[in-house]
Structure formats: structure tokens, C-alpha cells
Amino acid sequence: MKVSLECAHCLLERAGNQVRLATDDPDLQMRVIQAMTKFLGENFDSDAVPSHIGTDRDLLVQRMTGRDPYKDLKHQSNVMALSILPELLQLVDEKDGSESRFRTATLIAAAANSIEFDVSGREFSLSELKTIIENVEADLALDQVDEFRELCKTAQNVLYLMDNAGEVVLDMILIREIKRLGPKVTAVVKGGPILNDATMIDADEVGLGEYADDVVDTGAPAIGVNLERNSQEFKELLSSSELIVAKGMGNFESMTEFEPSSPTVHIMRTKCNPVARHVGVPKNKNVVLIRSP
After folding, report:
1. pLDDT tens digits for 189-229?
2. pTM (global) more than 0.85
3. Residues 213/241, Cβ–Cβ less than 8 Å
4. What is the set of domains in the chain, with CATH numbers?
5. Which whole-number Å values give the CA distances from 193 to 63, 114, 173, 178, in the listed order?
6. If 0-12 CB within 10 Å is exposed, 13-18 middle and 19+ buried, where does residue 44 land?
């Protein structure tokens, strides 16, 4: 997926948000934004991929400020999500039958993609998440949950590409249901701080390893899947997996740039117009979409 006109505004607005989180020094803030506008002027073109150019933006902010702007917010989102995990596990366990439990867990994972702190034009609250979870079925604009479940029943291994901190907690519910169908699940976090995406620090903090059979990282601080930056070990794991679950818009933006090596289940909420248009659904809808080789 390539950038559109709206991406320019979002990329720069996120940069401003990150700078404010990273430093209170007005002179440094200005220098970072000056460097950012120069970078975007040189690199924002019709061939740019949103997640790739977003990666360079984030690394520029980190490099100039010496801080991970999202460190505190990621911890807060993990704590918040862990506080509602027992309630959501109970919600799934109360469903009648494996098929209903799997569907509910998948819809919760889709709704969990709403945990974002600085998407342009949005504000997040716990009450909003609970409302979304209560209405996930009505908000499901693309529904391939049944096909997803069938793929899980025949796969021996599933690669689960995580997205945000906090969100990763609710993904653990779906990982549990996938494992109940038979396959082993390897959860993948980012190889270093990027956006508010989950890293090994977050995985340890929320106990991801208690749900997944293995937890690995991509080998790089990069949004989505970035084949030029990710480690060879991760790329080999990606190409050898029988089934891939890819959470969030960053994974969708980046993975639509190459043909999937195995069925890939994209679970996300369409939080911006460019992604919504690419998928072919309205903005702020849940999507469970399968892309096949």
C-alpha cells in the first residue's frame, strides 16, 4: 500500500505528537520538526509506503531527542489492558462451544486494535474500548472469521504478528483459542522501540509467553514488516509459517507490498481513510480479511 495525500498530514502530525512527548525543550522541538519537514520533502512521494516512511520518522525523533516517546504510554496501556483481561476471558469462556469462543476472541482482537494514543483525529478511552467490544459484531465490515478458524484447524504452526502495547494483552485471548484448535503459536513483537508497538519489554510485562508457545522479535525497530530491515531469522520464520495472523494497519500497509507466502489473516480496525479505502470498507470498522498466496 502506497501513501496518499492524507498520509502527509498524519505523518507530520504524529511527528509533532512524538516530539512533545520526547522533550520539553522548545529549541530541540523546533530542530526536530525542521529535520522532519526536510526528510518528508525528500522522501514523501507516490512510491512511499506509509509504514516504511513512518519508521524513518520515528527513528529520527528518537535519534535527535535520545528518548522513546511512547515508553510511559506503553506501560500505561499494558496496565490498563491487563485490568480488563479477566473480564474478557470470562466473556469468551461463557460462550457455548468452541466456534462461538473463537469468534468472540477474534472480534475482541479486532476491537483491541483501537488501542492507539495518537492516530490523527482520535482520542482513546477505556470506556470507548468497552463500547467497541460490545458492538464488535455490528462493526465487522469484513467477516472471514469462519474461514480463519478452518485454517487454524489444519495448520501446525501459526505466526502471530503483534501490534501495539496494551493491544497485545487482548490478543492473548485469541492466541489461547487458536492453540485450543491444535497449532503452536509463535508471537512476534518488534525488535526495538517504534511507535507504541509491543517489544520484548512489553511481552515480558504482560506475560505473553504464558499464552504463546514462543515469543520472538522482528530483529529491527520498524513498523509492520520491513523486509529491508528485519532480521534473517524473522524473514525465514515468516516464509516458513503455515498461517500468519497480522494485527493492525502497519502490518497491512507493509505486507500488501509483497505476495504472502502463506494465508495471512489481517485483523484490524480501519482507523484512517487511506487504509479504509484500500480495504474497501468505511472508516472505523473492524476487519477480518484473509489474503492467500
Report:
1. 999 999 999 999 999 999 999 999 999 999 999 999 999 99
2. yes
3. no
4. 5-65 (1.10.8.380), 71-291 (3.40.50.10880)
5. 12, 20, 24, 28
6. middle
Q: Which long-range contacts (CB under 8 A, 24 or more apart) does 41-46 make?
A: 44/3, 44/7, 44/8, 44/11, 45/3, 46/2, 46/3
C-alpha span between 27 and 163 (Å, rounded) = 33
In Å, what is the CA distance from 65 to each residue of 5, 14, 158, 182?
28, 15, 38, 46
Whether the CB-CB separation of 60 and 36 falls below 8 Å is answered with yes
CA separation, residue 34 to residues 12, 26, 28, 63 (Å): 11, 12, 10, 14
| 161-173 per-position pLDDT tens digit | 999 998 999 999 9
